[in-house]
Design a protein that fits this description.
mainly alpha; disordered C terminus
């Protein structure tokens, strides 16, 4: 969330850029990083699932907007924009990690098998599959284990845009039926694996079990694209206190296999409710999420997600004296800010130019205005 896909800035009709959505990213990355630093919230999964819901919402909103505007979805443009958004910062991280691993192997001796496997899994977006299969597969290096969430997102987005396009050729309601069925099937798979005695890793990192939150975000986007939008927004406003209370309560819960399914569903629905209120610029929540520090933290959330675990592993956070926690957090923030300005922003500008170009090509030809003198 992972922060990767959720860093997309939706420019759908009626949506535009909403600073409060960057604030949602800030909440998500804070949950992840604070858990890994100080142990609260109870699990970093809380933040990851918020990222998943926001990712599904934004990506689906962008796709629905493109289909409504152009009558098609350009898969080539979609995947090109995803590559420009995700790969540069990821490649820099993996390059630094590989250089560090090679240097460590030269100085201390040892094998590079695990490091090379981790880099390959990161590039190929199959980290989660490797982790779900442990110990029968090679282990992911500790510094790269957080890439599991990026892998799940990209595996989902390899299939979702073409499926959505085919469904939209029938009608949006069919897409909503498929999304609802997907949520039910994913939750049922979680229950089935739990009853069968599957490992925690299989349930926690399997694509089939962890796309529930992404699907909830996709469903929210689909609902807001229908005539029921006003009713959905009204319901979100009515339930806002309950949604916020539920989300805050879930910060204290570390799910095990027996509670995993209801936890994921409650967290996904709570995150969807928070996003819904964040879209209302006049709400108190939206104003709080739009504060400059929140927006800034949200914007660097992808880089911070990428860098904080490798920095923590290198400095021994969690295994050495707690005095290293604060310096490690500061170094992770410094790396994230450098990555955002030096790597992400240049490619984000290219991505936005690519999107503007594709929108211009898809737009119907303009009708020339008549000259006032008839010439």
């Amino acid at each position: 969330m992972s922060p990767s896909a959720s860093q997309e800035h939706a420019h759908a009709a009626g949506l535009g850029y909403r600073p409060a959505l960057d604030g949602i990213r800030a909440v998500a990355i804070a949950c992840v990083v604070l858990n890994h630093t100080f142990g609260f919230p109870a699990t970093g999964f809380t933040g990851v699932d918020v990222f998943f819901v926001l990712s599904g919402f934004l990506i689906t909103t962008l796709l629905l907007d493109e289909y409504a505007r152009a009558g098609r979805v350009s898969l080539l443009d979609f995947y090109r924009r995803r590559a420009l958004r995700l790969l540069p910062a990821l490649f820099v991280l993996l390059g630094v990690f590989l250089a560090y691993s090679v240097g460590s192997a030269v100085v201390r001796g040892g094998s590079l098998d695990e490091a090379l496997f981790g880099v390959a899994a990161g590039i190929g977006y199959f980290s989660n599959i490797a982790m779900a299969a442990e110990p029968s597969s090679l282990e992911m290096p500790n510094a790269l284990r957080h890439l599991w969430s990026l892998a799940i997102e990209e595996q989902f987005y390899l299939l979702w845009p073409p499926i959505l396009f085919l469904l939209l050729r029938a009608r949006l309601r069919l897409a909503m039926v498929v999304l609802a069925a997907g949520i039910v099937l994913s939750a049922a798979q979680q229950v089935r694996l739990t009853l069968d005695g599957a490992s925690d890793a299989r349930v926690a990192f399997g694509t089939d079990t962890r796309i529930t939150s992404i699907l909830i975000g996709c469903m929210l986007a689909a609902l807001l694209a229908t005539a029921a939008r006003s009713r959905v927004e009204s319901l979100g406003k009515t339930l806002a206190p309950l949604v916020l209370s539920c989300f805050l309560a879930l910060l204290f819960i570390a799910p095990d296999l027996t509670f995993f399914t209801p936890w994921v569903l409650l967290l996904g629905l709570s995150a969807a409710g928070l996003i819904l209120r964040a879209l209302d610029g006049g709400s108190l929540l939206a104003k709080a999420l739009s504060l400059r520090p929140m927006v800034f933290l949200g914007r660097i959330s992808y880089s911070l997600y990428l860098w904080h675990i490798p920095v923590y592993v290198a400095l021994g956070v969690g295994t050495t004296a707690e005095l290293m926690d604060i310096p490690a957090l500061g170094l992770a923030l410094a790396c994230a800010i450098a990555s955002y300005y030096l790597v992400e922003l240049p490619f984000l500008r290219r991505k936005r130019r690519a999107r503007a170009s594709s929108e211009a090509e898809a737009a119907p030809p303009a009708i020339p205005a008549l000259s006032p003198i008839g010439s």
